[in-house]
Amino acid sequence: MALPGPLSPRSVPAHRAPRAAFDRLVGDIVAALDHHFEIESDHVDLVVEEAPMLPPEWTDEVPLSILVPSVRGSRVVLFRMPITHRGAGSRDVLEDLVWSVILDRLSEVWHISPDDLDPRRPD
Alpha carbon of 92 to those of 46, 73, 96: distances in Å? Predict the structure, then answer.
C-alpha cells in the first residue's frame, strides 16, 4: 500500500490529520456564517480544544461545547474529541453535528433561532 506524499500523482488524495480536518471543517462553517459575525453586536470568539477537563466524579454526558463569557463578548469552545466520537460514521454525520453545535451556541449568544442562522436552509 502506498501513502500519498510530495511526489504522488494528483489522483492520490492527500492525507489530512484528524485535527487539521476538523479545524478546516470549523473554519469552513465560520466562513459560511461570516455575515452574522459582521452584523451581530455581540463579539464571539470560536475556538477548538481537544476535550473538556472534567472532574473524576463526572457522570453526565461529556459536553460537545461550552459558552464562556469573555472580556470582549463571548467565547464558544468546541471539543473536538467528543464531537468526532459522537459524529463517527461518515463525513456527512460529523459535518451535520459540527454545524448543529456551532449554530446552537451562536443562537444562544445572538438570541436568534439556529434555523435563522443556518445558510444551508433554503429561503
Answer: 21, 31, 6
What global pTM score does this model have? 0.82
The alpha helices in the chain, defined as continuous H runs, are: 18-32, 34-39, 80-86, 91-110, 114-117
C-alpha 5/C-alpha 109 separation (Å) is 43
Q: What is the DSSP letter of 56?
A: T
Backbone angles phi, psi at 17, to 5 degrees: -60, 150
What is each CA distance from 64 to 21, 50, 61, in whole angstroms? 17, 10, 9
Helix (H) / strand (E) containing 44? strand 44-49
Digit-coded pLDDT (tens) for 20-48? 899 999 999 999 999 888 888 788 999 99
If one looks up domain 18-52+62-115 in CATH, what number appears?
Answer: 3.30.2010.20
